[in-house]
Amino acid sequence: MTRSLSFFPILLLLLSAVVASLQIGSDLSLSRQFAIVTGTQAEEFADIMFSYAQLPRLVMALMVGAMLGMVGSLMQQLTQNTLTSPLTLGTSSGAWLALIIVNVWFPELVGDHSALAAMAGAMLSLFLVIFIAGPKNMTGLPLVLSGMVVNILLGSVASAIILLNAEYAKNVFIWGAGDLTQNGWESVQWLLPRLSVSLLLLVFAPRILTLMRLGHQGAAARGLNVVPAFIVLMAVGLWLVAASITAVGVISFIGLLTPNIARALGARTPRVELTMSALLGSLLLVATDAAAQLLSQLTVDAIPSGTTAAAIGAPALLWFSRRKMKAQDQVSIKLPPSRDRLAAWSVPGLMLIVAGILCLTAVFVTDGHNWHVALPTAYQWELRWPRMLTALSAGVGLAIAGTVLQRLIYNPLASPDILGISAGATFALVGASVFLGMNIFAVGSVLAFAGSMLVLAVLLVLGRRHQFAPSSLILIGIALTALIDALVQFALAKGTQDSYSILTWLAGSTYRVTQGKAIFLFIGVAALLVFTLVTSRWLTLISAGRQFAAARGLNVPVSSALLLGTVALLCALVTATMGPVAFVGLLAPHMAVMLGAKQAREQLIVASLVGASVMLIADWVGQTVLFPAQIAAGTLVSVIGGSYFLFLLIRGRSR
Predict the structure, then answer these.
(1) How many angstroms separate the CA atoms of 626 and 629, rounded?
(2) The whole model's pTM is what?
(3) Which of 432, 439, 425 has its CA nearest to residue 572?
(4) What letter would DSSP give residue 337?
(5) How far apart are CA 605 and CA 587, in angstroms?
(6) CA dihedral in degrees (283, 285, 287, 288; nearest 10)?
(7) pLDDT at 467
(8) Mean pLDDT of all residues in 33-37
(9) I need a surface site. Which of 453, 465, 478, 617 has the fewest CB within 10 A?
């Protein structure tokens, strides 16, 4: 009796949300709505809108929400990880990338095989994440970290494909925003039979999940073949996610939050958790969609449900992570072997490398067929030097930011993109473009700085409780990244020319940087580099411990605030000029340590040169490899840096 009573409040809330959702934008009375639902013929225009727009939209929200909630619970029980979901495992990004590939290169398969393509993309991304994290790390943070990096990598590839094939990929923008709008019952009729396999989960999965709670050996001792059972159940879950994404697009956080809420409400057995998560998923998505419809009535643009779900889910993820994570939840990260000390030739050698790359960029060009060396004309030089200066400055700025962050919070995974500081600047700039109509290429660094500082404040407040453990800090970055992705997809779903401009900017390209902006970025980064070199003693003392630094007479709070402000300003300058660039702030400080730069001043100088080299090479390769088409430097750096990050995770797992 107790179990049935626990479902009653959820069912009551779900019924209330259903009734409330049907009233939004409808002129029909409740009695008329009920009559149409029970079979009365639609006559007036309002009746037709209710029958072929509102009702199928509601049914779609109920179906998709239930599937996302159930699959989230399934994934969390299979991995025994409360942070597992299609979002954190990278499966949503895999499905999204597969749909883009099918739409661009295999459009004849879209009608009949989209769900299969999404399923294949989700499965490949899941296997990649499990390979990276390792089967023994399914219950820990490495799984979430691996999923986050795979998300960034696949997202970068998807953005590059869209930019290179804009005329073919515009029709997939709406998928990325997660829109439940319906113009009839065709999508519901298409999706319903594909979700029927969920009944098999409710029948067969609970016993398997119960055995898996005993551990691998305990389940095997009771006759369960664990690995095949895991693969089959995960494949069924991914099929449900893939079909849902194909029908309505990417909707984040439902599968992450609902199982946690179900357990907080008292769900203890696998069957109860699966069922309650499905009901809560329907409730949450119906309520979220109702909020999206209300906001759409208050604004000029229709707001997709996926955007609203992310706006609600990101703070909820932060709240859950503060309660669930512990300070000792560390990630096994060990840098590759490094020199004992910095060789005398390292800095001059890196300077020569930077100079050589600059010369290469200036004179080594291609016409799409042949490579040749040619001095640039005056016109060509006016086009090239702002891009070269921007790439150089961005690499130096992000390298400094990553070095300062890693030393300040004693975390080798700290970088502006992973912790969400660059995302704060991106959020401010994209938000100003979407909601205020500002040109994203014209808004200044002040707005980006405000966004970065806001994220830094959240990071310090939430991270202090867990002594800035990787778990809490990285989850903040995941939440902010998902929120910004939803905002970006909302902008793209509008389908205007501004949408394409935002996507171009988000790829991290030097293409549109003017001479004035390039000079401004260079001066700003140079000034902040000088400041960090002058104050490198602060970093040295703080790196040895805050109590040690205070005992040596350093005002630790003021010094830390100034250095963190420097990080935020560097991120703001780079992001406002060329867009977000990932992983340089992680890669460059690590490379400096491997070269033997152990002291703060040495690491700042060497990391700056490494960051400049990486950005200059990425920008030049992006301009020439597919000439006359261009790949943004940010996309290539994401692939390079993401691959390095995955190498660190795999290396830590093997050790």
Answers:
(1) 5
(2) 0.75
(3) 425
(4) P
(5) 14
(6) 160
(7) 57
(8) 82
(9) 465
Return the closest-CA partner of residue 129 out of 150, 114, 154, 160.
Answer: 150
- Alpha carbon separation from 434 to 495, 510, 573, 595 (Å, rounded): 12, 22, 20, 44
Collapsing DSSP to helix, strand or coil, 575 comes out as helix
pLDDT at 323: 56
Q: Angle formed by the axes of helices 254-264 and 305-324, to 10°?
A: 50
What's the rounded mean pLDDT across residues 56-75? 93
Burial bucket for residue 110 (CB in 10 Å: 0-12, 13-18, 19+): middle
- How far is the C-alpha of 395 from the C-alpha of 27, rounded, in Å? 57
Cβ burial 133-163 (10 Å sphere, 16+ → b, else e): bbeebbebbbbbbbbbbbbbbbbbbbbbbbb
* 316-354 pLDDT tens trace: 766 765 555 443 344 445 555 667 788 888 889 999 999
Q: Estimate the share of the chain in helix, then strand, then coil, as percent rounded to the nearest 5.
A: 75, 0, 25
| H-run or E-run covering 644 | helix 633-654
- CA separation (Å) from 517 to 442, 556, 578? 10, 34, 9
Rg (CA), the chain: 26
